[in-house]
Amino acid sequence: MNFTTKSRYAVNALADLEYLSNYESPVALKDIADRQGIDLTYLEQLFRKLRIAGIVKSVRGRNGGYVYATTPQDISIKNIMDAVEENLDATKCAGTSSCHSGQQCNSHKLWDDLNNVVDEFLSDISITDLVDKPKDPHIYLKEIK
Question: What totals of helices (H) and strands (E) does the chain contain, helices first?
């Protein structure tokens, strides 16, 4: 079970979207990329997947950027990881029970149970659980520009 940079960057970027959001205007990906130290092109690829999954939506135009497609309280870390195609399967057989030469291995239930615990844990944490939102996050943006 490995966590790649895809899921780490996506979770951090969406937490930043919540942090920087004033719920009225979109947040530019450049602002998130600058704050998180993520390559803008890579972040655009992740946000494309998040948009397809219905987690964010893009707003075009001069003051365009991204906003949440639904409330951040309803977006779990598991939703994000699924959207960026993060595979968190601890079993060797992807849950098919054919781990050892077509047969279920002795430790299959252990790894399958671990998958269930991790899925449940990540499903119970929302974006808003990660963010301690300040009164005016745009002050910070002015500092880094």
Answer: 7, 2
The structure tokens listed for 37 are 């130290």
Q: Please report how the helices 40-52 and 29-36 are oriented relative to each other, as an axis angle in degrees rounded to 10.
A: 120
d(CA 138, CA 29): 14
The one-letter code for the residue type at 65 is: G
Mean pLDDT of 10-18: 92
Mean pLDDT check: name the lowest of 18-27, 59-68, 81-90, 94-103.
Answer: 94-103
* Nearest residue to 55 (alpha-carbon basis) of 23, 83, 36: 83
Residue of 23, 3, 139 whose CA lies nearest to 73 = 23
pLDDT digits (tens, 9 = 90+) for 102-129: 777 778 888 888 888 988 999 999 998 8
Tokens of 136: 């005016």
Say what the pLDDT of residue 142 is. 45
Domains of the chain with CATH codes: 5-87+130-144 (1.10.10.10)
Q: Answer yes or no: are the C-beta atoms of 26 and 10 closer than 8 Å.
A: no
